[in-house]
């Protein structure tokens, strides 16, 4: 594989039409009562109205802690779990409300790679059959010979040895299995991949290889990624723009360097400051913002700003009048500077790295 | 140190605890520890000659990937491995040999001399007992004279120390009523209940989100300050290590391959594996998009290992001499030890892994390298090292 230097540290501004446009996406899960008639007594607001765009050839990182709704967002976009409300437009075509059969031809262009390489591959199929299955379903490649050579290309593209395609997933390590999952996703030559925590189950030395592979593939094939992860270091490495989610909402969105060097939302600041850096001297000098408490339940989010119950700014820096705003008015995701949105009434840059 | 009435925990963190002033500076001395598990495929040699000492007041981080034997080492020290495990070597706590000790005597040391914090706060508490019972059980096990009321009062105080709000109400709740972060706080409270000299923390924050991880690391700091304990911190996260450790032990394939002061390990690594680990981590503070340097291949199977350096097949500096015999952990200067015959060549490399490792390495090689096709790497970040 050729080395592709990506020295352009300034990501291309989002030009042109987005390849994926999500507006007001909501996914609610009903909570049923315990009685004989299992009435719906409430909803878990897993994804509570989010907007995002992915531009062609770009990577949008979607980060947040467990339970913030980032994976559900990915699944709702793909219609794997139908959205409750909102709109998902892929190349201008609405996906929300499509039936399975209407969805199928579109899946050629937008594919997903799952987190767990142990659960996402059928243990009873040899690698060849795993990778050629989408080709057969979509009837793209005719003839055994063509099929074989296509699978061979795909397997080679992800850095595996094509001689081993008759083996089963159990014969491969975690990193290799994740490569098989990527080969399967690429089989249909999609324009876009949704990567749901693709490297978080892997050890660091293995993870680095898969990240490099994803970067190479993106450059060679001009793919767009929605990269869902909880690890901000990985997200910084691979993304052009980054969206931060908290309790079902996007609370900050900016291009990568801006988000990491000039975070404006208190949650983003706390998140960044909580991540340890593998550098002892820097670690000793760093000041941490320690949040109090845990993430509230998405079934019953706090009024006004959802983050206020854990917000250090709310607790320590705001006046009573200002706090009243946080409690009663939900801050919209508003543009604070060009291309940089933050959902806080009192957004202000704070350098934490 | 007798754990007295509930007031013993009051002194400020600065106050020098009794433990650090005792005669011996070495609390825990592990010498040539070996652990073997019989399996259907043969004997898995999970820990192969681990040697280290823990001095009072220090934090020793044990770092390694899944399956490197770091958790098994600590379970062996605590005498918690199943009877089928074959353990040899020596583990001395304040001069007393722990290996082979009868369970009844060992129970006096466990929790009081050496306490352990496990990775998963969801399973390390008993779901059918109230938190309060589980704390006072620990307290009363080591102090027969302590009344139930005193134990409860002390429990409330411990919960307050680890930052649990409304401690006097929450002590009467069950583990399922606590979130993951709160449970880990309870586990830490139990570990510090008897003012242990040594706390072994096995991936204490791995199951937690980063903002909660930051909270728990603070609590661990409090626990160490309050009890004066030294800590063995087992983790795969080199970020966490950088912030808390005094010394670092890097493990690979069941053996220590590098040991030194935290700055030495991070800024002047002398074992290619350590350098590779550092180079494969994406950095949160990286301003340019530098390519990561993965280590090709995956760790070897611990069944029937070939002679020679176990990292050899993945090592960019590999030469024929590496396969002759496994290099011992050798002093490379300033209390820094590395197990590599070419460690001299890493002098001056600093942290530039890309000078040694090939950033474009593709790991198709690793499939062909495994003779039976199966590869030992267990790709789980929450790896516990069970084999």
TL;DR of this structure?
Chain A is of the alpha/beta class and 353 residues long. Helices cover 33% and strands 22% of the residues of chain A. Chain B has 387 residues and is an alpha/beta fold.
Outline the fold blueprint:
The complex is a heterodimer of chains A (about 350) and B (about 375).
Chain A: E1 20-32, E2 40-54, E3 59-63, H1 70-77, E4 85-90, E5 93-94, H2 100-107, E6 110-113, H3 127-137, H4 144-157, H5 174-186, E7 192-196, H6 204-221, E8 224-229, H7 232-238, E9 241-246, E10 249-255, H8 256-261, H9 266-274, H10 280-285, H11 312-317, H12 320-328, E11 334-337, E12 340-342
Parallel strand pairs in A: 3-8, 3-9, 6-7, 7-8
Antiparallel strand pairs in A: 1-2, 1-4, 4-5, 9-10, 10-12, 11-12
Helix pairs in contact in A: 3-4, 3-5, 5-6
Chain B: E1 26-39, E2 42-55, E3 59-63, H1 70-77, E4 86-93, E5 96-97, H2 103-109, E6 114-117, H3 131-142, H4 148-161, H5 167-170, H6 180-192, E7 198-202, H7 210-227, E8 230-235, H8 238-244, E9 247-252, E10 255-261, H9 262-267, H10 272-279, E11 330-333, E12 336-338, H11 365-369
Parallel strand pairs in B: 3-8, 3-9, 6-7, 7-8
Antiparallel strand pairs in B: 1-2, 1-4, 4-5, 9-10, 10-12, 11-12
Helix pairs in contact in B: 3-4, 4-6, 6-7
